[in-house]
Amino acid sequence: MATRAVVLDVGGVLAHNMWEPMLDDLAQRYHLGREEMRFFSPQNIILSSRIGAPKESPRLEMFRAAVAAAGAPAPACFYVDDRPAIVERALAFGLDAVLFRGPDAFADELRKRALL
User: Which domain holds residue 103?
Assistant: First the structure.
């Protein structure tokens, strides 16, 4: 299945265990300026504070919300996270998921999926 959406923890859909005021901190962490953050439309920023559940939730609300925001089936969504346990949950949910291992490895993963 061709990748139709990118779901990132580290653009497309942003899924993160945080609350609203931390969004600027996230942008700084990943060296994203306001221009880059515009890549994420407001409805495509899935925050645990907005949906009331973290990625660790047994009901998988974060993944369900991210897939719904992407408007694509789970297997067509590429997901990256920096925590192995969350990547395993994403894979179990049906997402095409990988562990973030740095910018070069991430770029390679994007190229494999013809996203870069």
Answer: 5-112
Tally of structural domains, the chain? 1
Instruction: Compute the Cα dihedral for 56, 106, 15, 4 and give only its sign.
Output: negative
- Bridge partners (DSSP) listed for residue 15: 46
Whether pTM > 0.90 for this model: the answer is no
Measured N-to-C along each axis, helices 84-93 and 61-70 cross at an angle, to the nearest 10 degrees, of 60
User: CA 107, CA 115: separation in Å to the nearest integer?
Assistant: 9
* pLDDT tens track for 16-70: 554 455 566 666 676 666 555 555 566 667 777 778 888 888 899 988 988 888 8
What is the spatial distance between Cα 81 and Cα 87, in angstroms, rounded to a whole number? 6
Residue 1 host element (H or E): none
Domain CATH for 19:
3.40.50.1000
Q: What angle do CA 28, 29, 35 make, to 5 degrees?
A: 40
Residue carrying structure tokens 């996203």: 115
